[in-house]
Amino acid sequence: MTFLGDEPRDRLLAAAAGICAERGYEEITEEAIADQARLPPATLLELFPGGKEECLAAAQQAILVEVVSAVSRSYSADRSEWDNMISGVRKILELMAANPEFAYLGYIFSRQMAPSRVREANEAGHQMLQAMLERGRDYSAAPHQPECAALGILGGAQALVRRELVAGRAEMLPLILPDCVYIATVPFLGQEEAMRLARQVSG
Predict the structure, then answer these.
(1) Inside any domain, residue 68
(2) In which region does residue 51 sit, left (phi positive, over 0), alpha (psi from -120 to 50) or beta (all else)?
(3) Which residue would you say has higher pLDDT here, 23 or 112?
(4) Does residue 131 lie in a domain region?
């Protein structure tokens, strides 16, 4: 489920994300990105005049666009809102498992040590996901719902993803789907129904 092609721009984005995950931001240079992408440094600066920071910000934006696309493709009008939510979460976890360097970029680097342009791209994606989760209120019969439910859902799910990434288990991310489903539904549906949905996807 890799989402980038073999065009120079895509190769540079993949190279920047890969080097960032392997060596850290301070070790990244325009020359290293270009070399990893098998392109001359001049090509990087033609496509990203802002250098490595602009390239990393574009990589962050690329994975966010792919997340939105994957969730959109997983939607079906024939399913309930909650089943569509589960399908969307599954697609995100599968996408990150298949692209661990971009998972690192979005869930670890962009939150802790990234330059402002990369953090801004990550924050835009965070706000978009939060708005999507807020829709759960419209499909809940619960009389009382936490005001910060969507923010709490994101924080909890992201913590689970970071745990797997830090442990070097990116390929195992799809296995945390039941936990993510529980976290995403319990504020809106209550514990019993959230547990039922989590068990539903456990097999």
Answers:
(1) yes
(2) left
(3) 23
(4) yes
Return the residue matching tokens 């991310």.
173
Asked, for residue 158, whether it belongs to a domain, the answer is yes
**pTM here?**
0.87
Residue 137's CATH number:
1.10.357.10
Confidence of residue 1 (pLDDT cuts 50, 70, 90): low
Q: What is the pLDDT of residues 68-124, one digit of tens each?
A: 888 889 888 898 888 988 999 999 999 999 999 999 988 888 766 667 777 777 777
- Region 53-72: what's the mean pLDDT? 89
127 burial class (0-12, 13-18, 19+ CB within 10 angstroms)? exposed
Q: Packing angle between helix 81-98 and helix 191-200, nearest 10 degrees?
A: 50
Q: Residue 144 corresponds to which tokens in the numbers above?
A: 């009382």
CA distance 140 to 152: 17
What distance in Å separates the CA atoms of residue 93 and residue 33, rounded to the nearest whole number?
A: 26
DSSP 8-state symbol, 79:
S
Among 81, 100, 96, smallest CA distance to 20 is for 100
Which residue spans within 74-199 are E strands per DSSP?
A: none
Q: pLDDT category, 187, cuts 50, 70, 90?
A: confident
Q: Domain of 93?
A: 8-200
Q: Classify residue 1: in a domain, yes or no.
A: no
Q: How many domains does the chain have?
A: 1
Q: Which tokens sit at 175?
A: 């296995």
